[in-house]
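I hope you will forgive my troubling you with a question about protein structure. I set the record out below, with my sincere thanks for your time.
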Amino acid sequence: MKISKYLILILSVLVIKTAGFSQEISARAELDTNMILIGDHIKFSVELNQPTYLTIEFPNFLDTIIKNVEILERSKIDTTYITADQILLKQEFLLTCFDSGSYLIPPLPFPFEMNGRQDTLYSQPLWLGVNTFQIDSITGIVDIKPPINTPFTFEEFFDRFAMPIGLIIVAIVVIVFLIYYFRKKKADKPIVKRAKPKKPAHLIALDSLDKLKKKKLWQKNKVKEYYSELTEITRIFIEHRFEILAMEETSDEILFELGQNKDIEKESIEELRKILELSDLVKFAKHIPLANEHELSMQKSYDFVLKNKQTVNLSEKKEDGLK
């Protein structure tokens, strides 16, 4: 009897220890359903309940759980503390299968080491059935779901066409601005031309050049004033002689308009270009020419006026005398 009592006591302790161990460590795998249609998605979860002091290897999958059962998505391993010494590890997978049939997901191994001894914990096996579609002999193969009628939203329109529409608007704005700018520039030019002086333009210019020469401005280190008066005399001559608004135009604009006149020699225009370019350098770039350049600019101005002076028709001169 005493032996029986001791045997019962020992078995009770072993049962209690086994029960305690089973509560400390357990593994579970679960499918949210065991039957799916081919191509459908199914959720597969793996849980491990273990003490914190124990290191257990979690199953590691590549692209499939088993052959033909593919992994579409997987979560990170989530850790939840049940107690201070007990944790629950969980990972979820989204699976699919494109071959009909019955599939057995074998027990998943969880290797670990306890008290210097290697051991492996296993989850329970799972069964998965994959059914194919029943094809109606009358209707044949049809879509799984009918087409959904989705209206074309403003957000979709904006995302698709915002860039080309924006470029078209910018191009239109630039074109309108250019048209407005050139029309305004053309309209700003006075319609009524300045009255011509009674004295011929070349005589006025030559007289003004003589007076400038007598001032000896560049000899008095008034180089900027010298070139300002020199170009002003030349511009006034061009304006009265060729009916060009030379006093309001840039040097390039003056040269361009003179270049359209076939009666003016190209050499004469080239000499004028040198006068205007040197004058612009002095007035705007603080350039100091050499002494011979001052004299040469004056001589070129005389030459330009004389080469382009207006010839008077004798019949016109007689009519003027009669008046």
In short: The chain has eight helices and eleven strands.
